[in-house]
């Protein structure tokens, strides 16, 4: 597990994690796993608890594009440690036909890269096999040409029965899931990530593929005056709103804020000095613009000549940069605030962060309010997900974020209260205009994107959402 964590540094410098941070997770696994009188069961419980704790801790600080990579590393390393796989098997999965030179393609409908992958797969001997599992793959495709072509052309080949091999793969309890993953990787490379999710589920468990949201109170519980929270920024993600919202619960609002940049170090130092004494919270934004000041941060977090108030906390936001000081990375709790992948995950995060029970009951009548909140959160998740398709999603990339959703919900809140007081029906036209044209639409500059967003407004903000 520790080397999985360390090797993520090769993916992004900002993922640096110290041995001490890992040892804290190790202790947590021992202290919080279920007890047992049998050593074997106790060790199993510790292993399960530690594995999931490490996953959640590291996953919290990874960008969406890297989360599947980390889980794949975990799954394959566990199988290697169990002796079910070896390093060459993982090498096959990663490289496939990249090292093969064969231009004698015999299937005219197959792409050259797929042919090379097929050749590499058919020659590979998996760890627990005495013979090559896919040795006859080329012959089987020749004999059942149309059936294999239909499987390769499937919309979801990873979920479809595999011609000639389905029963044989299912019969292998040890690495059948990995063999299936390699076949999808070879013949339908574009579906590898989705097939990887199924592999992760089979090896690690259902909870590793379910959407997870790290709540602000869970993050805060791990902080100390000398252990800051480091938010890794991405397009359209701003954590200051959630920090301020949580600060109100601890009577720390307003928080002290400095947007770093030229000549902003002195104000930041003064703010930290005052917060040390008063026990206040400090938010330093855009710290990639003040790397030299970040290098001094360790001295501010562990001052030698004065006592720091135990309520003091510091929150840092920063774009990824290879110049960020290693010592601070290995002290900080790293968090990313990207919208998660998938509609389900997007809705789950919204209802775990912005929307709570008090929020759902604060407007009368509650039935209308709840329905409108869900419709708007659904629309927001659709927009966030669509943005990931680049120019296929929107002609121009827009920085839609949670503030657009919050502002839209605030308008609907006031509109419902006004309609209630004046005993008039809702104005769907007004709500649609404020959401699609003003709050979200205020960012839109392309006429086709505006047309698309207005269609979303017409589709999800109407009287049908109350049914």
How is this structure best described in words?
The two termini are 49 Å apart. A 5-stranded parallel beta sheet has the order 2-3-4-1-5, sandwiched between helices. It has helices at residues 2-7, 19-32, 39-59, 64-81, 87-95, 112-122, 137-143, 145-152, 166-171, 176-187, 192-203, 216-222, 240-249, 265-278, 291-295, 297-301, 326-329, 343-353, 357-361, 366-387, 402-422, 428-439, 447-460; strands at residues 229-232, 256-259, 281-285, 313-318, 333-336. It has 3 domains: 63-208, no CATH class; 216-336, Rossmann fold; 343-466, Region D6 of dynein motor (Helicase, Ruva Protein, domain 3, Orthogonal Bundle). The protein contains 23 helices and 5 strands. The radius of gyration is 26 Å and the shape is globular. Helix 10 (176-187) packs antiparallel against helix 11 (192-203), helix 21 packs antiparallel against helix 22 and helix 22 packs antiparallel against helix 23. The longest helix has 22 residues, at 366-387. Strand 2, helix 14 and strand 3 (281-285) form a beta-alpha-beta unit. The chain has 467 residues and is mainly α.
Features:
467 residues; mainly alpha; 5-stranded parallel beta sheet; Rossmann fold; Helicase, Ruva Protein, domain 3; 54% helix; 3 domains
């Amino acid at each position: 597990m520790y080397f999985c964590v360390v090797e993520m540094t090769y993916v992004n410098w900002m993922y640096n994690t110290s041995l001490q941070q890992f040892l804290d997770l190790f202790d947590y696994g021992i202290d919080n796993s279920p007890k047992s009188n049998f050593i074997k069961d106790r060790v199993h419980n510790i292993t399960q608890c530690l594995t999931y704790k490490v996953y959640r801790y590291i996953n919290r600080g990874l960008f969406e594009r890297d989360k599947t990579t980390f889980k794949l590393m975990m799954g394959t390393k566990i199988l290697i440690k169990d002796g079910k796989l070896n390093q060459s098997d993982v090498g096959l999965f990663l490289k496939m036909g990249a090292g093969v030179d064969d231009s004698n393609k015999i299937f005219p409908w197959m792409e050259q890269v797929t042919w090379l992958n097929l050749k590499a797969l058919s020659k590979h001997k998996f760890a627990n096999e005495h013979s090559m599992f896919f040795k006859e793959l080329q012959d089987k495709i020749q004999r059942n040409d149309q059936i294999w072509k239909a499987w390769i052309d499937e919309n979801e080949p990873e979920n479809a029965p595999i011609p000639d091999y389905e029963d044989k793969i299912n019969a292998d309890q040890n690495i059948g899931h990995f063999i299936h993953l390699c076949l999808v990787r070879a013949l339908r490379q574009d579906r590898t990530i989705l097939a990887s999710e199924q592999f992760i589920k089979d090896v690690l468990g259902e909870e590793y593929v379910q959407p997870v949201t790290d709540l602000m109170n869970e993050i805060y519980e791990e902080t100390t005056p000398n252990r800051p929270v480091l938010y890794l920024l991405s397009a359209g993600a701003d954590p200051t709103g959630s920090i301020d919202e949580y600060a109100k619960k601890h009577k720390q609002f307003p928080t002290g804020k400095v947007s770093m940049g030229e000549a902003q170090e002195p104000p930041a130092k003064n703010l930290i000095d005052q917060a040390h004494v008063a026990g206040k919270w400090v938010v330093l934004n855009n710290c990639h613009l003040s790397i030299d000041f970040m290098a001094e941060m360790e001295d501010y977090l562990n001052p030698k000549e004065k006592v720091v108030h135990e309520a003091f906390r510091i929150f840092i936001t920063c774009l990824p940069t290879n110049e960020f000081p290693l010592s601070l990375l290995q002290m900080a709790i790293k968090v990313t605030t990207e919208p998660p992948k998938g509609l389900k995950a997007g809705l789950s995060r919204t209802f775990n962060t912005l929307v709570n029970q008090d929020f759902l009951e604060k407007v009368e009548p509650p039935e209308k309010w709840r329905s409108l909140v869900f419709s708007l959160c659904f629309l927001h998740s659709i927009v966030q997900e669509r943005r990931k398709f680049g120019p296929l999603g929107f002609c121009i990339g827009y920085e839609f974020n949670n503030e657009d959703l919050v502002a839209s919900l605030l308008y609907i809140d006031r509109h419902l209260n006004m309609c209630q007081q004046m005993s008039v029906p809702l104005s769907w036209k007004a709500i649609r205009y404020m959401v699609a044209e003003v709050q979200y639409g205020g960012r839109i500059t392309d006429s086709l994107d505006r047309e698309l967003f207005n269609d979303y407004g017409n589709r999800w903000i109407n009287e049908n959402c109350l049914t």
